Amino acid sequence: METELSKAARTRQFIVEKTAGIFNKKGYAGTSLSDLTEATGLTKGSIYGNFKNKEEVAVAVFEYNSAKVRKQIKHFIDQASTYHDKLMVYAQVYHRFNAVSFPEGGCPILNTAVDADDTNPVLKEKAAQVVINWKKRIEDLIEGGITAGEFKTDIDIPQTALSIIALIEGGIMIAKVTNTPANLDKVLKTVDTIITQLKTSM
Prior knowledge:
By secondary structure, this protein is mainly alpha-helical. It has nine helices and no strands.
């Protein structure tokens, strides 16, 4: 039984990994069953023997893609020694998200939020939760910086966290729709400025 479960888990993971880029590029509605069978080499029965339906595959893929981004960011945050540098990781990682191991198709948060906004409440809720958790992580870093004496004490923490997220995601959207990566670079300079302005005057 253990081996059976282990095999099932491996098959699910295989399906998720093989279809991650497709869902992230085409979206839920744009991804067909034939896309899934072609990418995995599995039959419809094999896919739906491991997932109830296409939505369940899409949810697992979103969780996989967003975890991939989170892992990248955490890796660099853990290496940074100051709270300023930890926050700056967000600007730096997204500045070169095409060069690092981001999911194929770009930012899964933006892609899923836009794709599922009025069409899929389950995926919309998943994307919303990722944004809420992201906001909390930024708030924790700002609070840590205040406690450590690195940042000013009068910062509007929730507003700053939301502004950083909005600028990053908005910058990605503008760069994508205009096919001009330099637009994202310009927006990320504003993120850089916001983070730098949190510091106490020395």
